[in-house]
């Protein structure tokens, strides 16, 4: 069946959270600037779609399980994740957490612009389907892409978290297409691959740093004869 709509994950797919100039002033427990391996470990804890690498008590486990449904739970869970990742002070944890929640801090992949425009030119609607507890629409508006995204299906707004088929069904309903005519593109076979249970197709991309993945999204479109 021809693809009539494309669903994209946000983190690791269209955008990536990467260190910026503010990281130069951040220091670890040894009072020395965070090196690249430390930065990578912290970012991995902040953005990995499944797993957490932390040990939680009962309240913490509940917060982690509900983090993408409730902003307060999200803050509680990631505060503990960052603490256990070795971020040495509460002030720095707050700084990192607030930075993560700033949609304008996220870096788009090099081909995000081209992919959204290629699909728009063909009249193929796009939805962004994300497990997230904050509004990412400003990231698209800042790049002039808000008009290219027909729907933002965000877990904390719809009350379902990937891989739950309900979130994918909500997305295709917003776009007005059948699940079997939609393709989900994401960086997690476990989370984004849940689209298959909803009847959608699925394509996996590697959540590499943006400088290392210039055309990962375009390659997906080419494989599906959309570019």
Describe it for me?
The chain has 9 helices and 7 strands. With 227 residues, the protein is α/β, with parallel strands linked by helices. Strand 4, helix 6 (137-142) and strand 5 form a beta-alpha-beta unit. Helix 2 (58-65) packs across helix 3 and helix 3 (71-84) crosses helix 4.
What are its keywords?
alpha/beta, 12% strand, 37% helix, five-stranded parallel β-sheet, 227 residues, hydrolase, 7 strands
Our measurement of the CA-to-CA distance between the termini, rounded to an integer number of angstroms, reads: 17 Å
Write down the Rg.
18 Å
Number of helices: 9
Q: How much strand?
A: 5-15%
Helix content: 25-40%
- Class based on secondary structure composition and strand pairing: alpha/beta
* Low-confidence blocks of residues: none
Q: Report the biggest beta sheet as strand number plus sense, adding barrel if it closes.
A: 5 strands, parallel
